[in-house]
Amino acid sequence: MKIYGGKTYEQMSEKAASVIAAQVIEKPRSVLGLATGSTPIGLYGFLARWYKEKYVSFAQCKTINLDEYCGIGPDHDQSYAYFMRENLFDQIDVLPENTNIPNGLNPDAAAECARYDKVIEDLGYADVQLLGLGNNGHIGFNEPAAAFVPGVNHVMLTESTINANARFFASRDEVPKSAYTMGIKGIMNARKILLVANGAGKAEILEKALFGPVTPEVPASVLQLHRDVVVCADEAALSVISQKHPEEIEWFR
Ligand code: F6R
Q: What strands lie across the sheet with 153-156, from one edge to the other?
């Protein structure tokens, strides 16, 4: 595992974007596993800028997103499909038909999970899978639980996640109660994992995930078992790790 620390969100975002850009430059037909949430917005901005400056093209890439809320469609401004168009897909040259996101409007959960599992398998898993980190240690929407769930699954969101995501909706009641998410198998089969975290609110859970026991109660802890994990975080998110394991961080500020 490699932990890169930057002073600011901007620096962290640039470093994380460079990991994805390097992947695409080296292998233009890359499969990119993508995430939503507030953390990757900055790095998507860098990718969009570098595309416009002609440093990188996504024309041959395929993408697989981690998750989507159930019950809202791609035109809802809080759907992850909408988020991806706004923050990345409409800014770069990826072909819309090469992008994949679970269909939150499919009421048949078993069918949707099976369909999306096949999409991921048929693409041969991601070359690099981008992950944010939930306040409770979730990755994708794999919430703390008694066991890791391997396949794409329909999850009931925890109170903690609903509360964290309420900031994006007009009211807490509007936050969807469930989601479709890639499971742990899809994530762990990615050739490389890029975990991004910023802000003091992530400091405790980031340390637990990377250095605590591997347990489904902290889903991100499973990443300790992956052979190629790159973490890009800002100083605030690294405040606990820099106290307890300072030698593990490579600062690039
Ligand atoms: C989003 C996702 C979630 C977020 C996590 C962190 O596709 O899968 O796991 O990455 O909730 O969200 P932010 O970045 O908003 O703190």
A: 67-69, 178-181, 153-156
List the CATH number of the domain containing 131: 3.40.50.1360
Write down the pTM of the prediction: 0.97
138 is catalytic: yes
Indicate if 93 belongs to the active site.
no
Domain count of the chain? 1
- Does the Cβ of 37 fall within 6 Å of ligand 1? yes
Query: Residue written as tokens 């595992």?
Result: 1
| C-alpha 196 – ligand 1 centre gap (Å) | 10
CA distance 18 to 251: 15
Residue 194 · residue 232 · CB < 8 Å: yes
Residue-range definition of the domain harbouring residue 145: 2-252
Q: Give me ligand 1 centre to Cα 39, in Å.
A: 7
Tens of pLDDT along the chain (253 residues) come to: 999 999 999 999 999 999 999 999 999 999 999 999 999 999 999 999 999 999 999 999 999 999 999 999 999 999 999 999 999 999 999 999 999 999 999 999 999 999 999 999 999 999 999 999 999 999 999 999 999 999 999 999 989 889 988 988 999 999 999 999 999 999 999 999 999 999 999 999 999 999 999 999 999 999 999 999 999 999 999 999 999 999 999 998 6
Active-site annotation holder among 98, 135, 136, 189: 136
Active-site residue 204, yes or no? no
